[in-house]
Amino acid sequence: MRRQDFYFDLPDELIARSPAKERRGSRLLCLNGSDGGLSHRQFVDLPSLLSPGDLLVFNDTRVIPARLFGRKESGGKLEILVERVLDDRSVLAHVRSSKSPKPGTGILLEDDTQLEMLARHDALFELGFPEEGVFSVLERLGHMPLPPYIDRPDDETDKERYQTVYNRNAGAVAAPTAGLHFDDEMLETLRAKGVETAFVTLHVGAGTFQPVRVDDVHTHKMHSEVLHVPESVCQAVAACRARGGKVIAVGTTSVRALESAAADGALKPTTGETDIFIFPGYQFRVVDRLITNFHLPESTLLMLVSAFAGYRNTMKAYEAAVAERYRFFSYGDAMLIERKDNVDPSEVGSL
């Protein structure tokens, strides 16, 4: 299974660099994994495509304003992207500068707030924050960490739109983008129809944008992310199964959280870290349907979707999305996918 098998041509103008006027204003490409059937809908149609008794599982992580700008005490400019908050006074971060800071080096932010480079852990830097605390400094000076393909500075709109309306647990440095399409009115419509909801937490790391650099997919090493799947979610999934409903993951992060918590075969409460890598051949234990955005060529997220819907189905759906000029990536359009059972990994590369 090669990385190049998951490549597709994407015209630059199809990359959504700004959100739709309204959250629910996106298109929805529906893919039936069983037969590869496609239909073109609007996201506002979603309630009509779900049934009473279904369960939507959302990721309630909150994106922190994780990008900081400053300079070294020696004067060289640098950019910081927080990867993970360790505690109220320290973080792990990516630091971009002409020369990497050494332990003990001071870093001055835009208003001269001082940080300290404490240690280096491979590609990440452990940074110490002042007594004011990490979240206070980030809220005051941080910028929303827009993905690298949104090649513009963040603005006031991004503070609201690069965040789900149901966020509550701060810690992500990238949004669970499938959830960006839901507004309060949509959630109320779904509840009124009898669609149940549950919430996991997976703090999305910057590694979600890292390309797969190895040719052999099996040798790729996933980044690790913090997750929490509470007992209430396990009970909600069991109740959904008992009444004959479908478990619908909102976003690949919800998939990874649920499937991580069911790694031993049965879904159970889980708190810790996950580096689960899902690609064709994976047998899903929890998720029946998936709501997700369109993902980058050769990305682990496209591989996850191919494992869920089948490789040929997925790549043909992406070909159709390009032809129909859907908007791609974080601020783009969405897919609703019905899982294909018994996905054959040998079909990868067969197109």
Widest beta sheet: strand line-up: 2-1-17-16-14-3-12-13-15
> Fraction of residues in helices?
10-25%
Total DSSP helices: 8
Strands, total number: 17
User: Radius of gyration, Cα only, in angstroms?
Assistant: 20 Å
Instruction: Give the overall silhouette.
Output: globular
Question: Secondary structure elements and their pairing?
Answer:
Elements: E1 27-32, E2 38-42, H1 46-49, E3 55-59, E4 61-63, E5 67-72, E6 77-87, E7 90-97, E8 106-109, E9 114-121, E10 124-128, H2 134-141, H3 156-161, E11 169-172, H4 184-193, E12 196-202, E13 225-229, H5 231-242, E14 247-250, H6 252-261, E15 270-274, E16 289-293, H7 300-309, H8 311-323, E17 334-338
Parallel strand pairs: 1-17, 3-12, 3-14, 4-11, 14-16
Antiparallel strand pairs: 1-2, 5-6, 5-8, 6-7, 7-10, 8-9, 9-10, 12-13, 13-15, 16-17
Account of the 3D structure:
By secondary structure, this protein is α/β, with parallel strands linked by helices. 21% of the residues lie in helices and 27% in strands. The chain has helices at 46-49, 134-141, 156-161, 184-193, 231-242, 252-261, 300-309, 311-323; strands at 27-32, 38-42, 55-59, 61-63, 67-72, 77-87, 90-97, 106-109, 114-121, 124-128, 169-172, 196-202, 225-229, 247-250, 270-274, 289-293, 334-338. Strands 2-1-17-16-14-3-12-13-15 form a nine-stranded mixed beta sheet, with helices on one face. α7 crosses α8 (311-323). The radius of gyration is 20 Å and the shape is globular. The mean pLDDT is 96.
